[in-house]
Design a protein that fits this description.
17 helices, globular
Length: 559
């Protein structure tokens, strides 16, 4: 048996490190982001050691069995001569003990790894693939044509400093966020859309190209080192921030993060950056379809996490559950060994299982003496939700990617706008942050605009219908959109069963769904993580595997 371990790993992949294991047929055995294992958000500068060990444990193999390690970056270009040989590189980047057998190391260019992770996860046999992020080794946006059984074809590239990702990073940092919190910028931008704000366009769209308001640098060489890229990044982001300062007439917000919606300048900057992304990506999507000769379109790269933009694009459109840098672990591995068999879109449930090896009970070895435990009863769970309770679910194997897809989720009935307020308090988030809704396919068609593939992973904003605004106001954002998830079959057993129970009772079968994590924490991974978060947060119940947990009040009664 051949085994391929894909990684996003330092020094090249210095955030969102991850590991993915494929067998000789290109089938995914396991896939996890390191942050889920080590509990450090985005796993900055940390090797994917725990994630890799998890993958090997799932397969029942040792590091010595690995034939190929595929990296989603050209580390030799970015860090020339830093490592004496592949063994030294693997020790630094991954940390597994490969004994005396050093596996082959394949370095896959970053954008090619992004492109592969999107196309091979999609249900399409041929597609145009558009990759947009901060930067790869030498590019910021690329267009590809992928087809089953054929070599991928690179159609177009744009230089590194013509980066949409840099422009959005600058807006995010102007607002006081980290560049890793671009989702906050997107959420704030919705207030500009809702107010029909007239903003300056920062891009000139040309027939076959685009020109950004901040001119790219003259890049003196086609192959830059990581140090040179960092200098270029700082320069371009600085110029974009100067542009936003000029637009706003201020060098930052006048309100604290929790009250940014009270600052017109903050909304102006967020919406200006959002419109830049939407205008340019719409044009690039059209160019991708033209170059590939087909309508099927795949997106990847960090900008593909921009749900508001994705929701404006016509289908057929596919975005994988891992379009960000963690996804290049999968894409690099698939570049080495594309999947032999594909049937529909990728299942995201590839991470750590809540129950232990061999079906060990969830609570084995965990102290739950302070909680009230009972077997999971769907009617009881549904009743709790209808009574206005807010709880969490941790079942089965964890989903990969930044979206909780009902196996590591907080859920509530969204029949009032007040539930949005309460859940934001529970999660210690700003009150202007939105939530997503989850339902079954048939009812989703009545609640919001239809998305053939985006709603599988909660990766596209959709305008809510009058019915959606009426029955689920808790998941409708200020601009009238939601970021829906449509749950098929028994993908997430507890949540799916509750939706079906609500429908049988004549209640709108839709729930608020958001990630099960406290502020600053990664999404929970294990049963221990789930219990710890449940105790720390003001949640009413926890579904853990096939059991239901409640808290006691001061008198010893059930809350």
């Amino acid at each position: 048996m051949t085994w391929i371990l894909g990684v996003n790993a330092p020094p090249t992949g210095w955030h969102d490190s991850a590991a993915c294991l494929l067998d000789g047929d290109g089938e995914i055995i396991a896939f996890s982001e390191e942050e889920r294992c080590n509990r450090h958000r985005h796993s900055l500068y940390r090797k994917p050691l725990s994630a890799a060990r998890f993958c090997l444990e799932q397969a029942g193999i040792s590091p010595a069995d690995i034939d190929v390690v595929a990296l989603g970056w050209d580390s030799e270009q970015l860090y020339p001569r830093r490592f004496a040989d592949d063994a030294a590189f693997l020790a630094y980047a991954v940390g597994l003990d490969f004994a005396d057998r050093t596996p082959e190391v394949v370095r896959v260019p970053h954008h090619q790894a992004h492109a592969a992770s999107s196309f091979y996860a999609s249900p399409f046999s041929k597609a145009g693939v558009l990759v947009i992020d901060g930067h790869g080794e030498n590019e910021s946006s690329t267009i590809w044509t992928y087809e089953d059984g054929a070599e991928p074809r690179l159609e177009r590239t744009w230089q590194r400093t013509a980066s949409l990702g840099y422009a959005y990073d600058a807006a995010s940092t102007w607002l006081g966020f980290s560049f890793l919190n671009a989702g906050k910028t997107m959420g704030l931008a919705a207030y500009g859309r809702a107010g029909q704000l007239d903003v300056e366009s920062l891009v000139d769209i040309e027939a076959e190209d685009f020109r950004l308001a901040v001119e790219p640098l003259t890049e003196s060489r086609g192959s830059a080192t990581a140090e040179e890229i960092r200098e270029h990044y700082d320069t371009i982001v600085g110029r974009w921030r100067e542009r936003y300062t000029k637009i706003a007439g201020a060098d930052g917000p006048s309100a604290p993060e929790g009250r940014l919606t009270e600052d017109p300048n903050a909304i102006l900057v967020a919406y200006t950056a959002q419109r830049l992304i939407e205008e340019t990506v719409t044009h690039l999507a059209s160019l991708t379809r033209k170059a590939s000769g087909v309508e099927q379109l795949c997106l990847s790269g960090g900008v593909a996490l921009n749900c508001s933009t994705n929701g404006t694009l016509p289908g057929p459109l596919y975005v994988p559950p891992v379009p960000h840098d963690a996804g290049v672990a999968l894409g690099a591995a698939w570049t080495v060994r594309p999947p032999k068999r594909r049937s529909g879109a990728l299942s995201p449930y590839l991470g750590t299982a809540i129950d232990g090896p061999g079906g060990t009970p969830v609570r084995a070895g965990l102290d739950t003496s302070d909680l009230v435990r009972s077997d999971l009863d769907i009617d009881r769970l549904t009743s709790l939700l209808l009574d206005g309770k807010v709880g969490a679910v941790a079942q089965g194997r964890a989903e990969v990617g930044p979206r909780a897809l009902c196996r590591r989720s907080i859920i509530a009935v969204p029949n009032t706008a007040d539930v949005n307020t309460r859940v934001n308090v529970i999660k210690n988030r700003e009150q202007w942050r939105p939530f997503a809704g989850v339902t079954r396919p048939g009812y989703g068609a009545r609640l919001w605009e239809q998305q053939e593939h985006l709603s599988r992973y909660m990766l596209g904003a959709a305008r809510a219908t009058a019915l959606g605004r009426s029955v689920a106001p808790g998941v409708v954002h200020v601009d009238g959109t939601t970021r829906p998830q449509v749950l098929h079959g028994d993908e997430a057993p507890a949540v799916g069963a509750v939706l079906d129970s609500l429908e049988r009772q004549g209640v709108p079968p839709v729930l608020l769904n958001t990630s099960f994590n406290d502020k600053g924490e990664p999404i929970v991974n294990t049963a221990a993580d789930a219990l710890s978060a449940f105790r720390a947060m003001d949640l009413d119940f926890l579904v853990l595997g096939d059991e239901l947990y409640r808290k006691t009040d001061r008198t010893g009664g059930v809350r």
